Amino acid sequence: MSPLNRRRLLAGSALAAFAATAPRNAGASASAYPTPHQHPSALAVADGFASVNALGLNGTTGGAGGQAVTVTTADALADYVGRKEPYVITVSGRVQVGDDMLTVVANKTILGVGSSSEITGGGLQLGSTTRPGNNVIIRNLRFTDASDDSISVTNKAHHVWIDHCDLSRGYDGLLDVKRESDYVTISWNHFHDHSKAALLGHSDTYTADRGKLRVTYHHNFFDRTDQRHPRVRFGEPVHVYNNYYRGNALYGVASTEDAGVVVEGNYFENVAKPILSGYDKSGPGRVVERNNAYVNSGAPQTLGTVVEPRTYYAYALDPASSVPSLVTAGAGVGRV
Fold first, then answer.
1. Which architecture, in CATH terms, is 3-330?
2. Which of 46, 162, 285, 335 is the 20 to 30 Å CA partner of 117?
């Protein structure tokens, strides 16, 4: 069975189970919840590093088992994402957040409806120094015009799954993971109309990130964003597979400060510097590359050895040649 057919089989069975068991709030519409068989890329359970049993969690379940609510305003969203109890929060329509980063605390699932749910003007920060943002799922949401990061996974947040989102026109990073965060999966997202896409690691001097930042990036569409797809410091292993890179002006992936990154099965199109070891003032990182496609693109830089992601989880690699069609058809909102 091909990797895509295996994904279809898992998607259908898992989504059917989710639709049957998801709690519903009195008065909430059924259309606020995912239905099965919408797209073969739509998995109902986290994969990659977010699926790993570690740090007291058995994978990433978000707000499963908690109350389900639907929000239409920034005040309601801020209220529910900050509550200590688990919640499944459906965002309906366009929510104007203002200039704030809303703090999301542990055990939350945040879902968009169809292709019209949007958070604009501000962003989501997973965790604070006193309130951890562990076990959080964000899916099927559009993020635009953030005053800072669109999504920031920070302050030791772990077990986070960000899936099928559309991120553009932010101020700083579209989706950053930093400050000792760990066990994160970033999958099937569309990044566009921005420069700094996905930072991984706070700074060259924040050595506390060493031994953390285990993140999987797969089936994302880095669509003419300039840089950081991701830019990695210290983390190992970081797994970057089956992503579609198109027209990235500065570079694709950069491994720096002795990070360990496995880059495989990706499709680089019109990317002069697809893979770098070291960037700007940051020292070199280790990179293993394999089975990538380089179309009208430069040669990759590699260095050293990296811990294999398969020591943590199993995965099925799609052929690099199929990545543009798979990712453009499946990434972004409206597919779950």
1. 3 Solenoid (2.160)
2. 46
